[in-house]
């Protein structure tokens, strides 16, 4: 029944459209005929004709009009204008000023319209870019992760971790010591206060990828291994204090640095040839309703690595 109603509506719409098109053809023909009659009446009145001119007579009248055009211009435009200038100079000046102002205003309006059109395109492009940013879930980019004024917002991340609605913190890093492992690290005290689930993945000590990373950032391999041990020792302390913490090692080269909460995600990249990750840009992402947003994609990347490292679970004791 619904399909039948749709077909009837569609057919009615087509019929109405065709009918309006035909009606417009007749109206247009009528208007052209009326305009022709009016033009013919003007010609007959101007030239005092008492009959409809044939083509030869019409051609003669056209030639005569072109010949008489300078005289008509002089009689109807030049002479009256000259008389007005002589007899009414103030009025003439006012007319000229107003005419000039009209021309200038017209030029300005045209230029303003062109500017507005260009701005409209800029705004459309900006709206499109803004829609893409919202869809991707990007909420910020910072030049580095050092704890300074122009660096990434560690304070905001800490507040987000300790938010009552946040139930977990996932960390994918290299040695972790500058993130949470050592005193003075941004998350050192935060992890002590956080009572949710903490899952941490760190580079496996002593492996070739770890040694290459240490060389890339100008650190001795033994010192880099010690930094990993320091971070793990800190997590063991928290585990003994009753925190829900699990740690796993990965044996590949460090790629992404991730810190994930319920609502936000911190992304950095470990450049193969250095520098230290604190000197690389930070991207902040938020969870979006669409599951192809960057937050969800990186969240899945963490889960993929977490499952891959199941066999390298670190014993934190009880």
List strands and helices in order, with pairings:
Blueprint: H1 2-47, H2 55-87, H3 89-136, E1 138-142, H4 154-161, E2 168-172, H5 177-181, H6 190-193, E3 197-203, H7 208-216, H8 221-240, E4 244-250, E5 256-260, E6 264-269, E7 282-286, H9 294-308
Parallel strand pairs: 2-3, 3-4
Antiparallel strand pairs: 1-7, 2-5, 5-6, 6-7
Helix pairs in contact: 2-3, 7-8
Transmembrane segments: 26-47, 90-110
Keywords: Membrane, Transmembrane, Transmembrane helix
Structural features, described:
It is a single chain. This protein has 9 helices and 7 strands; from the N terminus they run αααβαβααβααββββα. It is α/β, with parallel strands linked by helices and 318 residues long. The protein has a 7-stranded mixed sheet with strand order 1-7-6-5-2-3-4, with helices on both faces. Helix 2 packs across helix 3 (89-136) and helix 7 (208-216) packs across helix 8. The longest helix has 48 residues, at 89-136. The model is unreliable at 1-5 (pLDDT under 50).
Descriptive labels:
318 residues, alpha/beta, Endonuclease, Chain A, seven-stranded mixed beta sheet, 9 helices, 59% helix, disordered N terminus, transmembrane
